[in-house]
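Hi there,

I know you've been waiting on this one. I reran it after we fixed the sequence typo, so this is the corrected version. Both the input and the resulting structure follow.
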Amino acid sequence: MSDFARSRRGLILAGVFSAFAPLVFLIAEAIAAIAWTAGAYDYGHNFISDLGTTVCGSVFAGREMCSPLHGVMNFGFIAMGFGVFATATLLGARLPVRRRVVMTVLGALVAVSMTLVGVFHGGVESEANGLIALHALGAAVAIAVGNTLAILSGSSAKALGFPRWYAVTVITLGIVGLIGLAFLGAGATWLDPAVFERISVYAIFAWLLTTSVVQLRSARAR
């Protein structure tokens, strides 16, 4: 197989990950939330990580936990991380070397961080064995870097050959996501912390989906 064929095949696989990983995450979240048995799962109060906790009947941060399909959610976390990495790889392939390296390294960092989130769960199990710090670190880095990637891709829109509306949209998403993370970290109480978490995470989803659509349109135009 020629180098060109291998490169093209890799980009196609990255495109599949880029397009479907955020959808896999959202579907995994919905499935795990439906299976939740500690009362009704509340998107406005329960954290996303609650769905990945493995100890049913436990209480963590004042919230009762029971997620029978925690494995589905934890798979979704990891898939999401590699979706971000795939997107960063696709974008980097269209950029000069320096920007390409930055995008790819940051994408890999998100993949590693989301793997930490999926492996070290945000519940009493990780609190008891002292690994809760790895979960918290993975979540914070993944959210911060994911939203930063959105801003970087928007600022590189001209070099990528993407329209101006794309730049405005994804830069705005990245800023909103970072603001949500800042309020979450600061312990703001005018909204439930879970709402700030979802703002910061869903901004990344919106960036991924927007980028997938624009990349598809760009590829068809070429």
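Quick highlight: Residues 77 and 217 are 28 Å apart (CA to CA).

Best,
R. S.
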